[in-house]
Amino acid sequence: MCGIVGYIGQRNAQEVLLRGLRRLEYRGYDSAGVAILNNKANPSGAAVLQIKKRAGKLKGLEALLSKRPLKGNLGISHVRWATHGIPNARNAHPHRDCQGRIALVHNGIIENYEQLKEALAREGHTFCSQTDTEVLAHLVGRFYRGRLEDALRAALKKVRGSYAIAVISRDEPGKLVGARMGSPLIAGSGENEGFLASDIPALLDYTKEVVLLDDREIIVLERGKLSVSNLDKDQPLKKKRVKINWDVSSAEKEGFPHFMLKEIYEQPKALRDTLGGRISEKKDAIILPELKPLEKALASMQRIVIISCGTARHAGLVGKYILEQYARVPVEVDISSEFRYRSPILNQKTLVLAITQSGETADTLAGIRLAKECGAKVLSICNVLGSSIPRESDAVIYTHAGPEIAVASTKAYTCQLAVLYLLTLYLAGLKNALPGAKIKQLIAGLEKIPQELEKVLQNKKVILECARRYYHSFGFLYLGRSLNFPTALEGALKIKEISYMHAEGYAAGEMKHGPIALINPHLPVVCIAPESRVHQKMLSNIEEIKARRGIVISVATAGDKLIAHHSNHVIYIPRVAGVLSPLLAAVPLQLLAYHIAAKRGCDIDQPKNLAKSVTVE
Ligand code: AGP
């Protein structure tokens, strides 16, 4: 949830840290801080540990540092998403030990911090924040005997919880130390310099090769040297460097007012990249070599259980419809945080499919661990190379959406859908569940989706008109049936997240069992009704809404004139096979949410209270 950047080298640390934090601000944005060591500030020759922190967005800290820049080539920094203690400067990271010798930033939760704090207080330590992290800084200080990694190792032996940590000591101006347990931490190195960060975008300006730390590992970065060891043993570990294929431009707004809008418009490319190379030359089969490790398991699989959260769950719900319809495998979809606390029935014949953009969502990670304990095989669909969930899965199919910076997920969602279509057709072929001609026809339709999406993106007149008319309405109801019931849920979630208006997604057939009581002229109803086998049913629902003086905004297939008679507004999407319509129908709903939020003056990329990846329960 929080973002960490650390630097050691010859460059101006403040610049590197702030640039990295800007790229990570989506991870947390209620306060920010830096600690930089200045070797030359003190006439005695001892380094000076300078710390600056600010409540609020990163720009507050940037303003402070532009007036009084901190000199030095070694530092750590943090953007916070508060868990313990309100978001103020005092609770912002970095935190220090009693002597002001150690500075530390942390992402995660120290579960036993209260016991540790009491024990340290009995020894005379005094604390100035309400955070769990400050305890860690004191603990490292308590064990410090001149070698930072030893002190961190000793401190972490006392700690229960999850963490990614970056720490420096005033007494060791040539060393940056990090550790990971349950929260992501990556490192990069160049000539005479090293970087630590909680996510790839922070390092894109400097390196395309990273080392991914695993749980219970400690990293020591010195100028020109990077070494990793186990938390329990001080013995060097060999780590592979992983190549990153994201460009720096993918982490920039490139002229768009918000990342969210840029990411919405990137969807045709993201989908091309995700589908690319996964369709056979003859266009009659899906190629997913990633599934090789699951060959045997897929042959004997009897059931799929999809686990995911938020938007990724909505993708999973679409997955259920298509996997059951075409691959004829029974599918259950569960919210990860529910799955992990019930007693799911799983065995070797169950495939657990985890869907996650970030690959770090704590509940989904716990869910796959539970699945493995129960003997199930785990496949994940993920966007972030080398993140925790793919690393702990038996196989992974990556979406190639590129970095998604806006907190509200858009391109990652449609790419997750694309992978689910690929997987469905792959399994349909494997299980002979569909005739070859039908597979070919669906592949042809799928391949055309990116170009059809380009047309959707050019057609924003009605969307802008609806945003203008209804941005101050009482709320929104979203209705869809079958495969587009999840589209309704996703449309409503987008509105809630970024415009702070209430919106509810419902299966249209359920309307008469309750939500119909809400229908009135102040609650626009968005009806997702492209051509499909439930189209007529949607038309009946629309009539029921109109009969009660409701406002209807329909999303319909180009050429559907009938729907226009019954709706106040119609957003047309190109004609595609009904089964593929969720890939197109989601996009006008993203745009509608975006333009409503823009009209309401909301902070679109960083909506209040949210964070991009939810690495705590
Ligand atoms: C989407 O707009 C949300 N911000 C959120 O629901 C997100 O999809 C959810 O937290 C799951 O994240 P993940 O895909 O990284 O696991």
Plain-language structure description:
The protein is α/β, with parallel strands linked by helices and 617 residues long. It has 19 helices and 25 strands. An eight-stranded antiparallel beta sheet has the order 3-2-4-1-10-9-11-15, covered by helices on one side. α13 (411-430) packs antiparallel against α14 and α15 packs across α19 (581-599). The N and C termini lie close together (11 Å). The mean pLDDT is 94. The chain binds 2-deoxy-2-amino glucitol-6-phosphate. 2-deoxy-2-amino glucitol-6-phosphate is lined by residues 309-312, 356-358, 361, 364, 407-409, 497, 613-614.
The percent range for helix content is 25-40%
User: What amount of the residues lies in strands?
Assistant: 15-25%
In the sheet with the most strands, the strands line up as 3-2-4-1-10-9-11-15
Class based on secondary structure composition and strand pairing: alpha/beta
Give the end-to-end Cα distance, rounded to a whole number of Å. Answer: 11 Å
Q: Report Rg.
A: 26 Å
Number of E-state strands: 25
